[in-house]
Design brief:
It is a single chain. By secondary structure, the chain is of the alpha/beta class. The protein has two domains: 197 residues, NAD(P)-binding Rossmann-like Domain (Rossmann fold); 95 residues, UDP-galactose 4-epimerase, domain 1, CATH 3.90.25. Helix 1 crosses helix 7, helix 2 runs parallel beside helix 4 and helix 8 crosses helix 10. The two termini are 37 Å apart. This is UDP-glucose 4-epimerase. Homodimer.
Amino acid sequence: MRTVLVTGGAGYVGSHTCKLLAASGYRPVVYDNLSRGQRAAVRWGPLVVGDLTDRARLDEAFAEWRPSAVIHFAALTYVGESVEKPALYHHVNVGGSRTLVEAATDAGVDRLVFSSTAAVYGTPQRTPIAEDHPLRPINPYGETKLRVEEMLAAAEAASGLRSVALRYFNAAGADPEGETGEDHEPETHAIPLAIQAVLGERREFRVFGRDYPTPDGTAVRDYVHVMDLAQAHLLALEHLERGGAGTQVNLGTGSGTSVAELLDAVARAAGRPVPAATAPRRAGDPPVLVADGRRAHDLLGWRPRFGSLDAIVETAWQWHTGALRRRRAA
């Protein structure tokens, strides 16, 4: 059984990826400090509780489990918080990744899949966005992810650590089998926020801007099911195992969904409308963010299985309503 060290594997995309890794014959060893991940989400392999910036603890994990590769999710990921605390984001996301790269290289690991973000592009000059689009992040979160991508490219040249940086667009949905799902605190993603409004867990869903130059005036985003993202990590790992070179790859469907369309999809899943209110646009929110996903298809053979927004929303609805029932029964 091939062992993979999964940093941040107790988080949203990380836990779904661990489930898929285990089903594909790998042993995922989760390395997580549990500051934002959930211990209950670690169900498919061992858990090593440790911080990304702790070199001694990382060395212990590499020595004990001897992974052949690393999948690196661990990071701080809130855009607003990054604006308020840029030094913290650089310390954890860049400094922690540097420590991980050094530990992995010293342990003889030469394969790493990195959880990056479309935030490295900043405000798009053109859509759909391809990987050769200028990289001009507009917040510290995107800046730190770009710095890590640059570090990984330099590491391949210096030490042979090959990596694939996967630039997510909008992760959404939940495990269709209900074993893991989206559990953020605070929650910032649109679909769970809309579901929480329907379930009465928050007063309303806030639509930030209805005056964008889009067909219905609301912002358009590219939503990708979390299990499709997990599949992309597995395919990227297999690409590296075949000796493939390091690269950067967008993960998006190539299809845009407006906020208004998203609310309609949640209403269909719930059987009732989403309480919503209009708020001013947020600074830095572009009208449209949609991926050009051809490289993921051509290089990795990645094809999203959850092609419709309704299919994505339905898995999220089932997860969140199930979680609500469990909380009420506890």
